[in-house]
TrEMBL record:
Pfam families assigned to the protein according to its UniProt record, in alphabetical order: Bact_transglu_N, Transglut_core
Domain of life: Bacteria
Family matches, as InterPro entries: Bac_transglu_N, Papain-like_cys_pep_sf, Transglutaminase-like
PANTHER family in alphabetical order: BLR5614 PROTEIN-RELATED, SLL1049 PROTEIN
Name of the protein this chain belongs to: Transglutaminase domain-containing protein
Domain Transglutaminase-like: 171-237
């Protein structure tokens, strides 16, 4: 079983002291029969208490608040992960039966969110494309691999042309982006033909030169294959995700899996730096502007405490009652 040691450092540097920084981190690798966490250490500036919970999609999520004024916030995660090779699906069931087996999933809670399509300009064009690519005699597994190859060959891998806020409409028009864009397009293609598909965030760890996304945060898709389960597919590299892909989280899209996000009070000026170190001695990536599955930008909050919808509704009722008195 291969083992991978990864140190992931996220650093926010502020132009002026920030305070009341409330953050959420999803930096805890998934634990299952194909991936195990042998060791993990997480440290945060100011040593705040990190509360943990499991979210709706089964991801382990941490949250913390650093209230004191600070000009820098550093989050360090060091993990030692072991993985196992997962066998590939076997096409020993008639294709028609496999497609029939997928139909009931649209009414089952674990899969509904992963079948929900996002409307965007070009959706009709993409729908026609996937129908043309789908062979009548092909299994869902074969179709998923064909869609993966299509994205790999027809979208240009270019850093810096997109961000976490880039929409599907923009990605479709650009026909370019980085791994999170490739994953978003592939999940949409799969959902259009009723194959449940989810977004995956993590790392890709290989010794091969030229592997896109190697040594940085990475993203790919998973397709649900009847009588098999979730199959990882990496359209950025046109490969099946297996023992060299370290999974951190799954969700509908990037926002469900963002490794770090939060809010703070203070000046809007800040800089984000990320570094990923493997095997303790080789810095693979260090960037001031992250384009490889960017972290959600921490947006400045106004001086008052943000209120949720219930609080706002309650205050509105109270104001109306006061006006009526």
């Amino acid at each position: 079983m291969p083992e991978f040691e990864i140190q992931h450092i996220t650093r926010y540097v502020y132009d002026a002291p920030a305070r009341d920084s409330a953050n959420q981190i999803i930096l805890f690798p998934i634990k299952d029969e194909y991936q195990d966490v042998l060791k993990q250490e997480i440290t945060v500036t100011g040593n705040p208490i990190i509360d943990r919970h499991i979210d709706y999609y089964g991801n382990e999520v941490g949250s913390f608040t650093y209230a004191l004024p600070h000009t820098e916030l550093v989050i360090k995660s060091k993990i030692l992960v072991s993985t196992k090779h997962r066998p590939f699906p076997i096409n020993d069931i008639f294709p028609a039966q496999q497609w029939e087996d997928l139909k009931p999933l649209q009414y089952m809670v674990p899969y509904i969110d992963f079948l929900r399509q996002e409307y965007f300009e070009g959706a009709d064009e993409l729908k026609q494309l996937v129908e043309d690519l789908k062979g009548t005699a092909d299994t869902p597994y074969q179709v998923a691999l064909r869609f993966c190859e299509y994205v790999y060959k027809n979208f240009n891998y270019i850093k810096g042309v997109t961000s976490v806020e880039t929409t599907l409409t923009e990605i479709w028009k650009l026909k370019a982006g980085v791994c999170q864009d490739f994953a978003h397009i592939l999940t949409e293609m799969l959902r259009l033909i009723r194959i449940p598909a989810r977004y995956v965030s993590g790392y890709i760890c290989t010794d091969k030169n030229g592997m896109r996304g190697e040594g940085a945060t990475h993203a790919w898709a998973e397709a649900y294959i009847p009588d098999y389960g979730w199959l990882g597919i990496d359209p950025t590299n046109n490969i099946i995700a297996n023992e060299n892909h370290i999974r951190l989280a799954v969700g509908r899209n990037f926002m469900d899996c963002s490794p770090v996000k939060g809010v703070y009070k203070g000046s809007s000026g800040h800089r984000l730096e990320v570094s990923v170190v493997m095997d303790d001695d080789k810095v693979i990536v260090k960037e001031d502007v992250v384009t490889e599955v960017p972290y959600a930008v921490i947006k400045p909050a106004v001086d008052h405490v943000a209120k949720n919808s219930y609080q706002r509704h309650l205050e509105m009722i109270q104001m109306q009652q006061q006006q009526q008195q």
